[in-house]
From TrEMBL:
Annotated keywords: Metal-binding, Zinc, Zinc-finger
A matching Pfam family: zf-RING_2
Record's keyword annotation contains Zinc: yes
The keyword Transmembrane belongs to this UniProt entry's keyword annotation: no
Species: Brachionus plicatilis (Marine rotifer)
Domain of life: Eukaryota
Protein name: RING finger 32 isoform X1
Amino acid sequence: MSFNCQRANLKKPDSITKALVSTAFQDHISKQLELDSLVNLNFKKPISRNKICKLDAKSKVDSGLSKNIVKKKTFNDEKEYVLTKATAADLPTLAEKLGLVGIDDSRKQIGETEWNEIKIKYKNRQEFKEPCVICKEPLGINQQVLLSCTHTFHRNCLEMFEKHSGKKACPMCRKERYKARVVYDASRYHKNVSASKIQAAWRGYLVRKWYKNYRKMVPPKNPILRKKFFEEKLSDITNRLIQSFNYDADNLLEDIEKNLKKSRETFKNFDERYRHISEEEWSSLLTKVINRNHDECSICMNKYNLPCSIFDLEKCLDQNEAKPIVLLSCSHLFHSVCLNTFEELNLDKINVCPECRSAYRKREISTFFNKN
């Protein structure tokens, strides 16, 4: 183990005894190896757990007035200060005082002028813009520590590094016995960059908003874009007009559908009731009924004699004199009495066929025979 021991030229070597020289060297070596910390250990007697400590306790009402109000940290509180203070280990040893060993420069305290020179070198390299070497995160607004070797780190990162490594040395240059100072250059730089980003984003938002409003008011010169501009304007005006009316589209469509259905039924019944039916059409209807061979009245469920052909119609009329038969324009047959009774009991304003529910015109079969 080498200790930078340089013997000085003493004027009076006989005046210093060998015991004093050996004590001075022993003190110097123990301080360099930090062995003096073992001498100051306090070995106190362990406190027995079974012993009960009686304390005079008094009740106290907490009104909240006695609490210290912690003020929030402002930008004016960013004052730089030296983190490592002078200790007994930084004082010169007896061997250094006697000139037996040269004085170590790392144990000297750094003044304000020297700190300014260190900060100039550190700022020239612009290390406050770079991330922390230990955690690889931006320095940001966290506390930043500047070492006497002109390297900078997060304060928490440096403390954890010293705790895990077991020695006080710079993580980059491995310089021991360094001095540390808390600075806020990275914090100021981070705030300026953040403020400029916020201002740029806000300006961009205002410009985009202004441009959108400008495009809404002033039509473009390109004919295609100009056409699209006016189409959007027209659709916008139409939508606002529609939204200004209070209406229910479902109920409106339902009412329209009901009205159309009623109008269709009205026109259909009108055509069936008032249209002119010629003799040929009546004859074709009668032929159609005879060919269907339906010999039962649908109202009274009684049978009537139907001819096999239109030529046998006269014989059937003689047999059905008690209940005359009526032919409807929808090609259905009923007893005349049954149909009249059905019409009297019908609640609808328009008479409809009992079978197909359509408007009709009626004619007795006896009229066919009389005309023929």
